[in-house]
Design a protein that fits this description.
Elements (H helix, E strand, L loop, with lengths): L4 H7 L6 E4 L3 E5 L7 E7 L14 H17 L7 E4 L15 E5 L9
Antiparallel strand pairs: 1-2, 2-3, 3-5, 4-5
The structure holds adenosine monophosphate.
Length: 114
């Protein structure tokens, strides 16, 4: 989608530290990491957030989680554990309007998050 930051990362117009390229997903390091491991998994297709997901996206959502699992293994946090987060909308803390799954690990997560 024109003007969407993460669509521009998908197209290669904006650089990112890509760690995994899938057919329907892309994973890259968060530019402002909140944990030693902080990777974003996004769909290549533009969806604004989890509120856009329907049953038609079941395969895409499964692929996003599978990508997150691959990232966790690749980053060495699969055994120690990690957190998966999707922020939805303003009160959810969403700042980029393209669906993304945060993969956070490498430290003990607190609850509730700040
Ligand atoms: P959220 O607040 O859930 O919308 O998360 C958006 C995330 O995107 C934040 O953690 C930002 O640090 C991250 N971010 C913003 N711009 C970039 C970028 N150009 N490359 C990588 N991560 C980014």
């Amino acid at each position: 989608m024109a003007g969407c930051l993460f669509c521009q990362i998908v197209s290669g117009d904006i650089d990112a530290a890509v760690v995994h390229q899938g057919e329907s997903t892309l994973a890259f390091r968060d530019i402002n990491p909140q944990a030693p491991v902080h990777v974003l998994v996004i769909p290549r297709e533009h969806l604004t957030n989890a509120a856009d997901l329907t049953h038609d996206h079941a395969a895409l959502l499964a692929e996003m989680v599978a990508t997150a699992q691959w990232v966790a293994t690749s980053e060495g946090v699969a055994e120690s554990g990690y957190r998966l987060v999707m922020n939805v909308g303003a009160d959810g803390g969403q700042t980029v309007g393209h669906l993304h799954l945060h993969v956070l690990g490498g430290r003990t997560m607190t609850w509730p998050p700040g």
